[in-house]
Write a structure and sequence with these properties.
It is a single chain. By secondary structure, the protein is of the alpha+beta class. It has five helices and eight strands. The radius of gyration is 15 Å and the shape is globular. Helix 1 (18-25) packs across helix 3 (43-50).
């Protein structure tokens, strides 16, 4: 499946995307905010991701492309309550240009209108202001803090901020 917004496309990952995934996932900023990403991130890690062999990552995973070039990732799993759980990252050269916001809006529109989901959720680190701004620009509302929610590779546990979007709230 593909979703489009002008020159922005969400499409399935392919093995041709492995080098772009490796480059992005070794970015210190991405590794800082997403504790589940292996360190260092190898070609085998990227192949496992593309082939759907990563434990805990299910649902629909999309490459965010702009003019045919991979610039990020966005995905959504759906639980038994028909709630979508969304995650995303953006390559360093793409940050600050609204690409992730457009991709999130596109995926949320698909989830709410085409799939008929009644609730979408995403979490961010409390200090990740950029990711929080992306969510808020699309209409997500901050619900609260999940205390000691995520285990980081250095052994510390960090809080997460929960955001949600309901039908009629997409901006």
């Amino acid at each position: 499946m593909e979703l489009r917004d002008g020159d922005l496309q969400l499409r399935s990952w392919t093995l041709d995307d492995v080098p772009a995934i490796v480059d992005a996932c070794n970015d210190p900023e991405i590794q800082h905010w997403i504790p589940v990403i292996p360190r260092p991130y190898s070609e085998e890690d990227a192949r496992a991701f593309v082939e759907g062999r990563v434990a805990g990552i299910g649902g629909e995973q999309f490459a965010i492309t702009e003019r045919g070039r991979v610039v990020g990732s966005i995905g959504m799993g759906v639980n038994d309550s028909r709630t979508g759980h969304i995650g995303y990252w953006c390559a360093p050269e793409t940050r600050g240009r609204g690409v992730t916001t457009r991709a999130l809006r596109l995926l949320c529109k698909h989830a709410l209108e085409d799939l008929g989901l009644q609730r979408l959720e995403l979490i961010t680190d409390p200090d990740n202001g950029a990711s929080q701004r992306v969510a808020e620009k699309v209409g997500f509302q901050r619900e609260g803090v999940l205390r000691s929610h995520l285990l980081h590779p250095d052994g510390r546990r960090r809080d997460s901020v929960m955001f949600s979007l309901l039908p009629g709230e997409l901006v």
